[in-house]
Amino acid sequence: MKQRILGPFSRVEGDLEVKVDIDGDRVKKAWVTSPQYRGFEQILHGKDPRDALVYTPRICGICSVSQSMASAAALACAQGAKRPDNGVLALNLMLANENVADHLTHFYIFFMPDFTRSVYQRETWHEATANRFQASKGTATAEVLPARAEFLHLMGILAGKWPHSLSIQPGGSTRAVDRQERSKIITIIHSFRRFLENHLFGDKLEIICALNSAAALEKWRYAQGPDKSDFCRFLHIAECLELDKLGRTANCFMSYGAYLGIGGEHFLDRGVWSQGKISPLNSEAILEDLSHSWMSNRNTPRHPFDGVTRPNEEAENGYTWCKAPRLAGEVMEVGALARQLIDGHPLILDLVAHSGANVRNRVIARLLEIARIVPAMEAWARQLKPELPFYIHHSMPDEAQGAGLIEAARGCLGHWLKIKNGRIFNYQIIAPTTWNFSPRDRDGNPGALEQALVDAPVRDGEIDPVSVHHIVRSFDPCMVCTVH
Amino acid sequence: MNAKRPINLQWLQSGGCGGCTLSLLGAETPDLFTVLEGAGVNILWHPALSVESGEEAKDILDKVLAEEVELDIFCLEGSVLRGPGASGGFHRQSGSGRPMKDIIAELALIADYVLAIGSCAAFGGITAGGGNPSDACGLQYDDEVCGGLLGADYRSKKGLPVINISGCPIHPDWVIGTLMQIAMGEFDESQIDSLGRPKSYVNHLVHHGCPRNEFYEYKASAQHPSQLGCLMEHMGCLGTLAQADCNTRLWNGGGSCLRGGYACINCTASGFQEPGHAFFETPKIAGIPRGLPMDMPKAWFVALASLAKAATPKRLAKNAVADHIVVPPFKQTEKKT
């Protein structure tokens, strides 16, 4: 048995370290460390509650709007605030813009470059893959960056800028759009659809959304050929490397539900999926365990409304700044795979039924989600009514509490806020990668990535096993959110 | 700088959000990598963009530290975390356990130019907010006090203090423009202001080009978010004090904070994270905003403001508290008597 400490990991939005026990050609155990602590929950204590809208987006430069959405939702909950229909739609458009841009950045800039590594140079697909996906120099980058930048022009209109906007408010959006701006938004989304259909999918988004089983996906892929699109290129590599056998977890998934419609329903359902059964989410059952975190006050796991964040590098058994959130004691995997599964998309239901959570299925779910969200964005933009309000004003109570549970690109993001004497008394945040990259809990149950790394193959002579990199990045980790 | 050799750039991230890199990736016409290629800038390693991880990444950094590879430009994004105590334990390098603050200091000593990317790396920024739990500071500043990690006397190998490209986040052009000037060999101390910020963007005010200027002139002010009026009187806007070209350069194809409907919080300034009042409210003394426009005598501001308020056209008074134009510009006709 050999022990190795792996890091730094590039392309994980922040800093990550993984310790692995390797026996022969397999990883036997893994411990995941988030090596940076900044202390946003401490910074927020005593602030004017509205100031959370300035601080919390700056937790993360890639999930900035998501943090704003969760914060605005928690404040709205505390205020009892309602949003006008335009406000709901504008906020959906901003969140979708960020989430889809993040999925795109993940696939092209963070995930695919690992297949260009020299360890794969004997593979038949290597040369073409290196040409297409080489970090910063591949042909894909030259197409993706302009498409991404133009897509984010939507933020230029609705959010003023990205990242770090203040247009997202408890009562809606600060930015009303006129008819000409609405038509510009529709044009931007359409142009992005063209990019997706020409390069990422090589087919209509509606065709991708309609793929309803593993067999349908296979049939579509063979009809397309391995080089028709970047999605096909990935599926080909995934088959060659058996990425469906890599990075499995215990098959417990959670989603807070994404994109509230103007009728109050979620566009993507909220719920919990455990071993094939769907149940409603009870957010009261979320507790944060600190038994293996560099934190004080570790006696009992607490619900985030009563959560305490006191860093202590000397804490016994601690190996990360990350807390270990659990739902009714269970480890949850969150992200696009969880969302599409809980929403009941037939392709994802079928893929998970066959092979559970794994590297391939996580990536497919993310790309499928792009194909599903962009048409929804087109519909939301058309529903905007420029002559009606985008914002309703509410005053801030002196004593209140509120929770904001939303879905960021990487999964469940929650903010829990208590206000006393008109000031923030407690503010606790659980980010998606806090769930996925959590450490062990008091019962010794490893977090989702720690589970997924078990049995990862190690090639002859490998110091940094490439399989570990695929598994880590299949979660699209955001380490700056994980510990904030 | 030898034009035949690529200009080597090493990028590190510490106590920040990574948002400056994400903003930089939005560079347009041309995209970031085309710009860097044209400027002859070679990224040795960037935590979000490079393929190398683990031992490969450590090797690159070790070669730079051993000065086997010439380090022309060192960019730090995010603040330096000195805590807890003075250990730097709040951010240790993955794989080695070394405090990042020590690696940052070593790189600063061997780089020709050191760039602080964003307000965190420049001054401490948001991470230094509240009671500053991680003891965050900038490379050469602790808020507005010169010092920080490297000390007030620090100079890079080319004899410059840290170049502070502040902003939360940076505009892609601010970083690209500075890198281009360095690549062309024309960036010297005359190009930075007293806080080390490139004059190319801080010689402007956010107020310049603000689409709410007419409302400002007549003190026709918004009362609540989403309204069109000036945000200075009630909504906490610091655009008349903030040094940046946000309303003339524009973000993401045409935006800015003001165009997005919310106040400028002066994010390019040292200590912006602790304004001493709620961000969304204008602190006032006897009804007059405490933070008057830069270099404007108070008596003149009060006199002009009261005159302007008395002369506010109805069009502006009504539009200021609406979320879309309710009274369009029209030609006033003299009534015949």
Structural account:
The complex is a heterodimer of chains A (484) and B (337). Chain A has 484 residues and is α+β, with helices and mostly antiparallel strands. Chain A has helices at residues 40-44, 52-55, 64-79, 85-111, 126-133, 139-151, 153-158, 179-200, 205-209, 214-224, 230-240, 336-342, 346-355, 359-383, 432-436, 448-452, 466-474, 479-482; strands spanning 2-6, 17-23, 26-33, 168-169, 172-173, 252-255, 258-260, 266-268, 271-274, 277-279, 286-289, 324-327, 400-408, 411-420, 423-430. In chain A, the strands form 6 sheets. Chain A has a 3-stranded antiparallel beta sheet with strand order 1-2-3. A 3-stranded antiparallel beta sheet of chain A has the order 6-9-10, with helices on one face. A 3-stranded antiparallel beta sheet of chain A has the order 13-14-15. In chain A, a hairpin with a 2-residue loop joins strand 9 and strand 10 (277-279). In chain A, helix 8 (179-200) packs antiparallel against helix 14. By secondary structure, chain B is an alpha/beta fold. Chain B is 26% helix and 11% strand. Chain B contains 11 helices and 11 strands. In chain B, the strands form 4 sheets. Chain B has a 5-stranded parallel beta sheet with strand order 2-1-3-5-9, sandwiched between helices. A two-stranded antiparallel ribbon of chain B has the order 4-6. Chain B has a two-stranded antiparallel ribbon with strand order 7-8. In chain B, helix 2 (32-39) packs parallel to helix 6. The longest helix of chain B has 13 residues, at 298-310. The model of chain B has no long low-confidence stretch (mean pLDDT 95). Chains A and B meet through helix 1, helix 2, helix 4, helix 6 and helix 7 of A and helix 1, helix 2 and helix 3 of B.
